[in-house]
Amino acid sequence: LLDEGLMERFFGRLDGKELATYAYVWPVDMFEPMHTAFDVESVAAVSTRIRSTLLNIDSQHEGGGNHIVLTSHADVLQITQVYAAGLGNVGKFSQYRFGNGEVRR
Fold it and tell me: What percent of the chain has pLDDT over 70?
């Protein structure tokens, strides 16, 4: 199952630049999850997109008993993790980093 809702967070004018340039965005995320500085997709928008995606996937697998593995990029998975855990500020997702190839349940 491929779903565009799992695509990486859009980094606007920073897309395709060196990873170090994302450091301009992540600190702002922690204090303002709705910001779109540099035309980035806000953390709030990613949360909304992921919620919709998960509800859609879930509706296709009614009856329970299914194990579904989601694969995406770091920001999307970390935002999803913080959102699903119900933490107060999803903008702090960068404090919950995944290791390469790490699996969490």
Answer: 98
